[in-house]
Amino acid sequence: MEKLDDVQIKNIVETLLFVTDSPVSLKKLSEVTQIKDKKILEDSISQLKQEYADSLRATQIVEIAGGYQISTKPEYGRWVRKLYKEKLSAKLSAAGLETLSIIAYRQPITRAEIEEVRGVDTVGPLETLIESDLVKVVGKRDTAGKPMIYGVTDRFLRQFGLNSVEDLPELSSFEQEEEKAEQQELFTKPKDVKIFNDEGELVGSDDESAENANLNEDQPEGQDEKETELESKEQDEQQTQEQDGQSQQEQDDVQEEQHLQEEDETEQQEDVENPDETDESVAQTDIVSEEQPLTEESGE
Questions:
Q1: Which of 19, 60, 171, 198 would you label with 31, given CA atoms 20 to 30 Å apart?
Q2: Where are the domains of the chain?
Q3: How far apart are CA 137 and CA 148, in angstroms?
Q4: For the chain, how many helices (H) and strands (E)?
Q5: What is the per-residue pLDDT for 196?
Q6: Tens of pLDDT along 153-188?
Q7: What's the confidence (pLDDT) of residue 289?
Q8: Under CATH, to which class is 94-167 assigned?
């Protein structure tokens, strides 16, 4: 084979990385190019990485899943999805993500061990992960029944941008984040202090005061003025209704008084028109009063 200079080697490596749809390992590159010195290949890849970064290309050379590959930069991924009119990354349920996380951090692991951690059955999520080529059977445990043991695949590493499982974040980092969140919540959340009156009755708490204060702060400017205007309008309407009620009562009283006066005038008019009937009633009254003593005398 003819001797290749550095430029030719770099162009050959770039071509191989361009045409492949999966990461290419140094071992594979060495076999194809027949260059046994892997240091030469590593130098060519480093030069290509720098050239891609300096030229501000939309693609980059990444070390992933134990090999090298040309990939698009994350910020341009949505345009690729539009081209294929579908989302390239598969969605996993919460149970699937939980199962995948356990396998990734504790592989090789059996199904029984996964279920011991989760506390529930794992058959469904495990089958989904195997069908998605994110998890695979890596062997059998040398124990009673020889249960299958599971581990993550190269596709898992590519999906999460990892070169190996050693690149996974340390579990301690998640614990530290949780502790920071708890501490921040302790410092930011006010303590629930109970408020009592002189008689020992509970009238409120600091939490309620804080909530009321937050509600007041959330109100837009001018809200208090609008509420005051509405209250004054309601008071004016109430006063108007009360005045209208009083006026109506006064009118009713005047009408009733007029009606009584009309009845009196009518009775007087009738007395004037029938004087004889009045005299007869008076005379009868006198006769009864005169006869009454005679009756008493006769009784004696």
A1: 60
A2: 6-84, 94-167, 190-246
A3: 7
A4: 12, 7
A5: 58
A6: 988 888 887 888 888 888 776 666 666 666 666 556
A7: 47
A8: mainly alpha
Q: Identify whether the C-beta of residue 9 lies closer than 8 Å to the C-beta of residue 41.
A: yes
126, with CB counted inside 10 A (0-12, 13-18, 19+), is: buried
Please give the class, per CATH, of domain 6-84.
mainly alpha
Q: What is the pLDDT of residues 28-50, one digit of tens each?
A: 999 998 888 889 999 999 999 99
Task: Please tell me the distance from the alpha carbon of residue 243 to that of residue 233, in angstroms, as a whole number.
Answer: 15
The alpha carbon torsion through 52, 57, 63, 65 (nearest 10 deg) reads -160
Q: Residue 136 belongs to what H/E stretch?
A: strand 135-140
Secondary element (H or E) of residue 138: strand 135-140
Cis status of the peptide bond prior to 108, with omega within 30 of 0: yes
pLDDT band for 244, please (50, 70, 90 cuts): low
Long-range pairs for 266-275 at CB < 8 Å and ≥24 separation?
A: none
Single out the residue of 71, 67, 70 nearest to residue 88, CA to CA.
71
User: Hey, is 208 helix, strand or coil?
Assistant: helix
d(CA 10, CA 45): 7
**Cα–Cα distance, 158 to 136 (Å, whole number):** 15
Question: Residue 148 and residue 202: Cα distance in Å, rounded?
Answer: 62
Q: Which two tokens stand for residue 143?
A: 């124990």
Residue type, 272: V
Q: Cβ neighbours of residue 43 under 8 Å, at least 6 residues apart? A: 6
Q: What is the DSSP letter of 190?
A: P
Exposed (0-12), middle (13-18) or buried (19+): which is 186, by Cβ within 10 Å? exposed
Task: Note the pTM of the prediction, 2 decimals.
Answer: 0.46
Q: Which residue has 């109430």 as its token pair?
A: 238
Q: How far is CA 76 from the centre of its chain?
A: 29
Length of the chain: 300
Cα within 13 Å of Cα(290), Cβ side: 6
